[in-house]
């Protein structure tokens, strides 16, 4: 009965309308009656899709990616050549495999998301990152780059007949291809749209339109990506003088304005509670705004502009300026929508710089390599550089960020208006001079054993308290937790921030974070039956316990309590800095068996 009640409460939290949208979508596909199953399109038999740029700049250095090697999910290099890869195979486990005959591919709705392995592996090459890279190569004067671009698109069309095979399964994947093709056009300064390219984009638009209700029901970046792709397609067609562009841009505008107003809070927090998905959504808004300006269309409404500015500010204040990295917060599937530079996958500075210039008319960071995206896209940066405040509270999403000199600490507290993807209530991340000292575990994979889904998405993968060896929230499915936690107290303090929640089981966790030359975390814990286990997930190193203090020789973590600490030990855990990656790290665990207060102090050499 309790499991049924949990599901009812969770459905009410998600919203009955969204639940009905998902149900309608699934029943429609199962019955064969969904309108998307009757969509047809004539894909172009041949190109050319793009033409040579009107001007080249041999002094411009194109990124190294997609010459002889590509890096998938920001971490896994694969060799590439002049000939296109297999589009419907897993490039990581099936290198050198050949695509099947196109007429043997089933309709996309007959293909399971995970039945044949992680479908994201297959999708990765079909996101068309290479289209942007080849356009950059062409702008830099590389001979044959446009021919290679056209050849790869033509081969993709051959191997992926309309609405058959895995690469048509997800409307968001179709949207990402539209966005990347549009950026390639911008990079080539191509204001036209060839007939083959128009047919290709039209086929993608036809795939996106019938499932918009399902995208809205997700309350995540499906909605922003798909609405953004429709607007961009319309604006692109408008620039090309195609009459159908105006209506498509109008519809896309309505959808993207509605999605941004719903999914981004006034303080910039995004519905997915994830740093990387925030970047995906923010990059989408940047591409949309660039095409609005390019097409000379009216500005978006006031709410859209305010939320876009807030979203840029949110990510700017999450980023460590020294490294460009950020807390490994929430779900992370390896997505990077605008990889226009040689920056590492976990370097968020190019995206933040672009969005801050577009939506706040100032730089996020002083001039540096992260300005290269601006140069490629023809955006002139202003001279003004935004300052970093010592305290930033994003209460709509549940984040407190404190800074002092080169140190940054982030507290995650539960303010769930949308479904959480990680059980990370009261997690603390610590950064110092570009180094992540106290770490979030990441996501690892969406298609893995239940053990790893529970580990990486659960309490053991975060710097917080585990009560009575039980999860913070019960997992109802691969992407859904039940009984969402809710903060019942939060306040700023003289040196930091404090927040608290009470669990349905009676557990109470009050956490105060202070940053004053070192990090102090004070946990007040009660309501548990057997134990409260505190974990600190440390940066890899030679850690040891000396006289009750954990140290690697340069950092010291000391724990005190007003009740006995019955166990203090160093153990091993896991983290995932990139999708599909799993590496060990040291974890300090402390256990108390009576309600009390535990104080943790993390110090470092000056």
TrEMBL record:
Q: Which SUPFAM superfamilies match?
A: Chondroitin AC/alginate lyase
Q: Does the keyword Signal apply?
A: yes
Q: Which InterPro entries match?
A: Chondroitin_lyas (IPR008929), Hepar_II_III_C (IPR012480)
Q: Which subcellular locations apply to this protein? A: Periplasm
List, in alphabetical order, the Gene Ontology terms for molecular function in this entry: lyase activity
Taking the first listed entry, what is the main subcellular location of this protein, grouped into a coarse class? periplasm
Transmembrane residue ranges: none
Record key words, sorted: Lyase, Periplasm, Signal
Query: Residues of the signal sequence?
Result: none
The source's superkingdom equals Bacteria
- Which stretches make up the Heparinase II/III-like C-terminal domain? 390-602
Which PANTHER family does the record associate with it?
HEPARIN-SULFATE LYASE (PTHR39210:SF1)
**Protein's recorded name:** Alginate lyase family protein
- Name the species this protein comes from: Sphingomonas agrestis
């Amino acid at each position: 009965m309790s499991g049924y009640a949990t599901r009812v409460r969770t459905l009410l939290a998600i919203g009955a309308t969204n639940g009905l949208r998902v149900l309608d979508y699934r029943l429609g596909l199962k019955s064969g009656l969904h309108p998307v199953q009757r969509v047809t399109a004539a894909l172009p038999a041949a190109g050319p899709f793009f033409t040579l740029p009107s001007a080249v700049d041999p002094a411009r250095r194109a990124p190294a990616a997609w010459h002889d090697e590509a890096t998938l999910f920001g971490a896994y290099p694969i060799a590439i050549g002049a000939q296109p890869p297999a589009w419907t195979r897993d490039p990581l486990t099936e290198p050198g495999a050949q695509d099947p005959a196109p007429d043997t591919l089933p309709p996309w709705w007959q293909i399971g998301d995970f039945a044949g392995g992680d479908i994201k592996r297959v999708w990765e090459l079909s996101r068309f990152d290479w289209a942007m890279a080849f356009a950059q190569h062409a702008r830099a004067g590389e001979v044959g780059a446009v021919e290679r671009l056209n050849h790869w698109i033509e081969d993709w069309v051959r191997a992926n007949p309309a609405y058959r095979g895995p690469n048509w399964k997800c409307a968001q994947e179709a949207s990402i291809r539209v966005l990347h093709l549009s950026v390639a056009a911008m990079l080539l300064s191509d204001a036209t749209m060839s007939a083959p390219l128009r047919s290709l984009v039209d086929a993608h638009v036809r795939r996106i339109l019938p499932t918009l209700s399902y995208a809205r029901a997700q309350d995540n970046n499906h909605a922003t990506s798909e609405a953004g792709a429709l607007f961009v397609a319309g604006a692109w067609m408008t620039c090309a003088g195609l009459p159908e562009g105006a209506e498509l841009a109008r519809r896309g505008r309505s959808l993207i304005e509605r999605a941004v107003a719903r999914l981004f809070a006034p303080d910039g927090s995004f519905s997915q509670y994830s740093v990387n998905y925030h970047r995906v959504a923010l990059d989408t808004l940047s591409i949309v705004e660039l095409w609005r300006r390019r097409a000379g269309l009216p500005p978006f409404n006031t709410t859209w502009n305010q939320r876009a500015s807030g979203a840029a500010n949110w990510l700017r204040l999450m980023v460590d300026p020294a490294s460009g990295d950020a807390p490994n917060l929430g779900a992370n599937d390896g997505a990077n929508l605008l990889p226009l530079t040689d920056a590492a996958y976990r370097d968020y500075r190019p995206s933040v710089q672009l969005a801050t210039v577009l939506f706040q008319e100032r730089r996020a960071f002083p001039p540096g390599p992260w300005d290269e995206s601006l140069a490629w896209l023809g955006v002139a940066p202003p001279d003004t550089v935004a300052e970093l405040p010592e305290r930033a509270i994003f209460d709509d999403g549940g984040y407190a960020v404190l800074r002092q000199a080169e140190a940054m600490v982030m507290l995650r507290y539960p303010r769930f208006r949308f479904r959480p993807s990680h059980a990370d209530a009261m997690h603390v991340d610590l950064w110092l001079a570009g180094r992540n000292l106290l770490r979030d575990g990441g996501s690892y994979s969406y298609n893995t054993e239940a053990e790893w889904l529970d580990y990486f998405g659960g309490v053991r993968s975060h710097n917080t308290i585990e009560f009575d060896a039980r999860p913070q929230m019960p997992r109802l499915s691969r992407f859904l937790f039940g009984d969402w936690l809710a903060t019942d107290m939060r306040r700023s303090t003289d040196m930091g921030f404090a927040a608290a929640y009470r669990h349905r089981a009676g557990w109470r966790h009050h956490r105060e974070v202070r940053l004053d030359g070192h990090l102090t975390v004070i946990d007040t814990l009660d309501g548990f039956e057997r134990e409260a286990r505190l974990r600190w997930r440390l940066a890899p190193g030679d850690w040891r316990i000396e006289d009750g203090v954990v140290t690697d020789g340069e950092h010291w973590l000391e724990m005190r309590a007003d009740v006995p600490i019955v166990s203090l030990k160093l153990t091993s855990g896991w983290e995932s800095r990139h999708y599909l990656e799993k590496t060990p790290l040291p974890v300090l665990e402390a256990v108390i068996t009576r309600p009390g207060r535990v104080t943790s102090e993390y110090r470092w050499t000056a």
